[in-house]
Each structure stands twice: as structure tokens, then as C-alpha cells.
Amino acid sequence: MTVTTLTNGVDRVPYVGVRPFRSEEADQFFGRDRESAEVAALWNRTPLTLLSGAAGVGKTSLITAGLLPRMEPAGDVLPTGRLVLPPSGPIAALPAHNRYSLALLSSWFPAEYVSVLAGRTLADFLRRRRPQTARRDGRRTLAVIDQAEQLFDGPAAQEPQRAAFLAELAEALHELPGLRLLIAVRDEHADGYRLDDAAAFSLPALTREAATEAMTRPARAAGRVFEPDAAEMVVSEISGDPVTAIEPVLLQVGCSGLWSSLPRATPMISRGDVAKHADFDRWLTDFCGQAVAHAAAEHGVSALRLTSWLQRALDGEPGFTRQSALDSDIPVRALRALEDRHVLKAGPGGYRLQHDRLARPLRRLDVADLKPPQDADGAEKLRLAGHALNEGDFPEAQRHAEEALRLNGDDLRARAETESLLGDIAYLRGDPAVAETHYRSAAYFSETIGDSAAVGRLLAAIGRALLAQGREAEAVSGLRAAVERLPNDLAFHTELGRALSRMGQRQTAVAVLSDVLAIDGDTPEALQARGELLADLGQATEALRDLDRVGPHQRPATRAARGLALATLRDHSAAHAEIDAALADAPSSGPVLLYAARTLALGGDRVAAADLARRADEATDPPLSPPQRAEAQRILRPGPDGPSA
Q1: How far is C-alpha 350 from the geometric centre of its chain's CA atoms?
Q2: Candidate from 232-241, 261-270, 394-403 with smallest mean pLDDT
């Protein structure tokens, strides 16, 4: 092989840098053969395998470039699952759902309508789309959840959804013997997924030998060969002496910098070449400076203040603790951003450096190293807004979305997406009037560019926002328009049925919901809605037929309606169990309180029924509809025999 042949190949940088490897880069992924083989064996034979490790240790790269190429020829492998749903349409247009289950199903089944997935449990949908998972004939479906620590981001208010999601995971693993699930999660959150009989594999940093292979073999394939002494020198410079563990991300930073600094006509990399052209401290300083600048810009904090805090923490005053960050006006989310960018990693009581090798570069950071990131475009701001919304940080989501709106300029599609996200923020904050305004703006932009499907979804969202404001007639009109735009989306038909019910048109609502169930008899939202209506109408046997098909994951109003149906059939003991459970979960829900009042009235406890009816009439989370309010007043109205059902 001639020098000319070698140097013609070195334009392609064989190192991926700080991002994870992609599946098409498996031929550049080295140093993890043993780990890939061991995790693949566990994944293939064990219902649940936990792949844990620190941030930046290479879990995602191991999955995409090490595991999936091994597993895909062997069986049915779903796309990589995530627990964060990117902005994909107005949240208000979706049926009631678990946010984590919906995100996971959306990533496993990307061709499905989000509205079809919303409200489905993991076990239910896998059974429908991968029936082999429910059989014990040896056929398997391999599924993975990457970055599973995202389940634990966000405020404590999301804890019920987290607990429900973990219960769904346990249910799927128990009911689907053909499912093989791999969960990749950071060390500090691994215990949250330790279900019964889980196999575990902790991914370590690279050894000296593995790091050398990860550096030299991609280089050789791209036209350059490391002399042994040169490879040893690079590993020592990246990890420090004595060489212990080498962080993959730092190895990539050093190797990428070295590759780009060498003259093109360098087919053999010697120790002298490394000494002459390498500046590992400079490259690691640039790496830290970019990470700090991005974390600061994304989370609205001064880059200099964040740098000063990091440097003080390095000297032990008072360390990388969350409290010390808050005391210095550093948002905790900025620390998580530094973890995501591999400067920090979580440790006991707070954070520590990703690697001790970063201490010197961090100490030498100054204002010249904190180059502000290039002005983010509207798409990046929209991504940041969606990420903040997923974590429940409404102020930050609002800030990024408003910046996105400013940056989007005349891009009407981008403006529509941003207005829709602003509507989501307002809707989740409990301000349906503001949400309606943003959804209408998004619908206007979508109509202007001819996106009829987006308009249909936004009309449904507007209908839900109108319902939340008590404007039932307008909501029905909007939902009818959504159904006309997207007649095949059964979620909109179901929501129309609910809106008709709130207007008092219960028989018409039952007919609409029956049409939905004639098309898809297992639609959970339609089964719940029709079951509740039939219980309201006193058709208890028919109501229970629907409600018994919903499964164990029923919302409180559905359980309370089931209690009313059971009481109608004089099964008062079972009825009380249902309403007690519903009230424990939703003590301020007007519909739940009303169902409970009617149930107690049927059982003859008129005083307690009147008390619950009074609470239902005053409830706001959610309030009663006009027909329901009339029912509550009827229970409260004195009569010859007192309140009745």
C-alpha cells in the first residue's frame, strides 16, 4: 500500500466525537466486544435486563452499534424506545394517557397515530401488534428502553404517572412471555427498575486495552496506523497516569482532536507526531467550555457564574451539591445539562467530575473559552421547550417557546408547531382560555399552508379547551369539524361522544360511542366513556359489560361509575369498594363525588349521599357538567323520602 493510497483515505474522520455511535457506524465501534456479547446473551434469554452505567460511559453506543447489529438477524427487534415524546401535535387533542407509556409506544411503533396509542397499556398494545409476545412457543420480541433515567426527571407531581408506568412494565413482563426487555439507565436510577428476576449488567469505563482498540482500529480502517508507543501515549494523556479507567467520551474528544491536527500525509502516527501536534489540555478545555456555554444558554444562567461555581466546587467549597448550586443561583437543570454533556456525573450527595482528567481543563477555563453557542434556531428552541415541558418546567418551556416563535419568522409551519406547543403549556398549566387562543393561531397557520390533518387535530384540541371552559355547545361544534377533517381518527369521535354527554345528549352520545366500538371494539377510551354513560342511564348490566373490558388501569371516574352500576344491581359491598378506591385517587373530582353520592343514595345512606352531592356541586377538579350539576341538586333537594339516586 502506497503513501498516496493511505493519505487518500484520511479525509473521513473515524471518530464520532461526543455524540453516541449510530447503527450505521457499527464498523467504527471497537473495544466493547465482550460487553456486547454478554449483554446480548442476557437480553436474549431473560425477560428483563438492566444495563446500567454512569452518564457518558457509552450505553447508547453499546445498544446501537454493539447490540442491535447482533440481535436484528436473530428475531423481531422493535425500534429503540424512549420515555420522552417530542412535540407531535396538541396534547389537548389526545385521550387521557400515561405520558411515559405513550412516549414509549410512539417510539416502538412510529407509524401509528399518536391518538391511537394514547390510553393503551404496554401489554395491551404489544399483544395486539406483536401477538407472539403472548405465546410460549419460543418466538421472541426484543425491545429496549434507552435513557430510561428520564422517567425520574420532573416534579413530584408526576409521581403517580411514574408509578403507573412501572406497574405497566411489570404487567407486560408478567403477561407476555415472549417479550425480552432491555432497559439502559444511569447508575443512580437503576434501583427504580429492579423488578423481580431482572438480570443486571453494569457497564464500566474502558480498560487500557479496550481504549487502545477503540482508538487504533478505526484509524487503521481510515488509512492511518498508530505505533504502539504512540497509542500508549494518547491513552495516558487522556486518562492521566497511572492509567485506570478511560471514559469513552473523553477518548473520542482526544482522538478527534489528534486526527484533525495531524498533517494529511501522516500514514503512520508516531510518538513524535503525538508530542508535536497534540494539545489534549486545549481540546478538553474547549470541550468543557462548550458544555458550560450551552448549559448556561439553555437554562438562562450566566456562563461566567456557572464557571465560577464549578471552579469553587473543584476546590471543595462546598462541592458539586445541588444545594450549593441553588445557593449560587445555578438551576439544578443546568447541572443535569452538564451531566448530559459529560462534564459531571451523579454521585453520592450530588455530582462529581465525569473524570479527574477534567479538573485541570476546568480550572483553566476563562471567558475566552466560553464561546457562546451559535444562535439557536427556532427548531432548537422548540426542542428545548418540548424537553422542558416533558420535565414539567412550565416557565422554562414558555421561555424557549416564545424565543422559538420570535426566531421562526415567516416559517408558517414552524410557527404553527410553536403555537401548538404554547397551547400545550397553557393547557397543562390549567389555563384553557389561553390554550384555546394558541391552538386557534396554530390552526390558522396550518390552514394557510394546507395541512388539513394538523387543522383537524387542532380543532379537537380547541374543542377540549372549550369543554374545560364549560362552553359545551361550541366544543361540540369544534369536535364535529375535527371529525369531518379526520374521519378515521376514532379518538375524535370518542371525544365528540363525551362532549355530547356533557350537553345532556346522552343517547346521541351512546350512539356515537357505539359506532366507534363497532369499528374497534377494544378502544379503551370509548369503552370507558360508553360504560360511564350507560351507568348514568341506569343500564347497569350493559355498563359493566363495557367497564369489565377496560382492564385494571381505570381512571377514578370509571371506577366510580362501575360502583354506581354495581349498586344499581344491588351489589352494595362491591359498589362501596369501587367508590372508596375512586375517592381515594380523586377526592376533588366532581364526577367521582357525584357517582359516589348516587351509589350511597341507592344503598339508603341519604345523609352521606347529600354530603357527597354538595361536595360534587362545589368541586373544580374537574367540575360537574350542567346535566351532572342538575343531578347533584336533585339529590340535595328535600323530598318526601329525602334524597334518592
Answers
A1: 24
A2: 232-241
